[in-house]
Amino acid sequence: MYIGVGNGSPWTRVIRSPGGGDNLFLSSIVALDADTGEMNWYYQTTPGDNWDYTAVQDMALAELEIEGEPRKVLLQAPKNGFFYVLDRSDGELLAANPYATVTWATHVDLETGRPVENPDLDYSEKGKWVLPGPLGAHNWQAMSVDEAAGLVYIPAQDNPLFFEMASEWKETGVYKHKPKGWNTGLEFGRLAQVILDNIAEQPTPKGYLKAFDPLTGEDQWVVEIPHYWNGGVLGTEGGLVFQGNALGMFTAYDKATGEVLWEFNTYTSMLAPPITFELDGVQYVSVLTGTGGGDLFGGEPLPPVAEHASLTYSNEGRLLVFKVGGEAALPAPTVRDRSIPKRDLKDIDTVSIARGEIAYNENCAVCHGFLVRSGGAIADLRRVNDETLAIWDQIVIDGLYSAAGMAGFGDVLTRDQSGDVMNYVLARAEEDRLVAAGEKELPQMTWMTGGD
Fold first, then answer.
1. Which of 25, 138, 172, 440 has the most C-beta neighbours closer than 10 Å?
2. 347 belongs to the catalytic site
């Protein structure tokens, strides 16, 4: 039995493990004897993981010809950006090639099996943009393996993060665990300001569908997709590759060339992989629509890239089923009203807004998105109405909406902190309203720098 292992917490290894070491068995593939539970072998993709590079992504068992001999292998594309081919009997590393943009390491040493970290991307002293970011070069969206062609069809992505050590650690050398907090060890409290201060160097987020050779690291073809957070992949014996993407398009590609052969607008972003099945002699292809799982980084991006369909229309979960010659139509939905109400900030203390940014990012951003930009699955707080503002503390502190999934935070936030969060949300909303109206190019977050 083969299992993938996730990351450690805090993400930053110097806080988690100041004495060093590989931190076994984080970010590892572990082979267990199914009868006894004993470990047969392990392979650690990211020793001493420092970036949230989990190795829990889907694995495939295949037989590939390597140096003229058939080998039974295990294939995985974990978050860290390298595609691993392991002998599944003993864990021997056979190949490890980058399948997306990788900056944290230069390569994987095939003799030692260890990645060679890029010293220029060490963020222990100074923050750095790093690829992949914590969403990974590939996440849990399924890949598809074509043994006959020796290729993997993989939904890859470039989605960077500005990694910077938590300010309290840099200033004091002490990191205090926060109950119920995210506890990454990174500077997420002031992340919006940090990103804006370094926006000029940000790598452009984008997504790819790749026909990738895991042994050579070469791409047979690549389709670039404007949004990075796209769906899983299905390859078929009939020569097709199906994928639903963030823009709402469900597409069939020629598996030999990547040419688009057919597409259908579902008007909803997709993350699930399609499946195909036969019923009464008829073959069908089906896919679940709807997105989520990445609200934290998956909302309206900064700087803008293509917005996904769940933001433009609605995040509607449906099962769509197709067959050759099918004639059912899907009516175009109404475009979402995404206007942001004007807010008067003249009576709001900028110090309160600054405190609220930190409290929001430490407690709320995981669901509602950094920069208060929802990915479509969770309420967009920038559009909060006056009725909801009137019961803000009942929701945030008392748990008025807990039955709907919005837990109360009264055990970790005071009512004053709740008010600070509300002020920050209103200030962020007004910043984005001004940008949308053409009155600002980018949010300036002036309350963080002592401005008006």
1. 138
2. no
- Helices 350-363, 415-436: axis angle to 10 degrees equals 100
Terminal Cα-to-Cα distance of the chain (whole angstroms)? 59
Annotated catalytic residue, options 22, 49, 52, 432:
52
Domain range for residue 255?
2-322
Q: What is the DSSP string of 80-122?
A: TSEEEEEETTT--EEEEEESS---SEEEE-TTT--EEE-GGG-
Q: Which of 427, 308, 318 is nearest to 375 (CA)?
A: 308
How many structural domains compose the chain? 2
The CATH number of the domain holding residue 39 is 2.140.10.10
Residue 57, CA atoms < 13 Å, CB-side half-sphere: 30
Summarize pLDDT for 102-117 with one digit per residue, the tens: 999 999 999 999 999 9
Cα Rg for the chain, rounded, in angstroms?
Answer: 23
Q: What is the DSSP string of 257-294?
A: T--EEEEEE-SS-B-SPPEEEEETTEEEEEEE-B--S-
Tell whether omega for the bond before 132 is within 30 degrees of 0, i.e. cis. Answer: yes
Residue 36 sits in the same domain as residue 145: yes
